Protein: RNA-binding S4 domain-containing protein
Organism: Erysipelothrix piscisicarius
Amino acid sequence: MGAMKKETQYITLGQFLKVADYVNSGGEAKHLIHTFSIQVNGEEENRRGRKLYPGDVVVINGNKHEITTEHEG
């Protein structure tokens, strides 16, 4: 499972997809979200603006990522 570090309090799903190198733009993020199965904490998610907080788990096409703060390991 990969860990994604973010310095602010939250990151949106669309921003996360860009930082994690799944997409290069917001338009690509929107397409990916509506094309592939994306789960946040075990629930299907289709909102690009969904806020992700430390401890949230995002699964994209079977790849699991945990959101952490910059200070966590």
Notes: The longest strand covers residues 63-69.
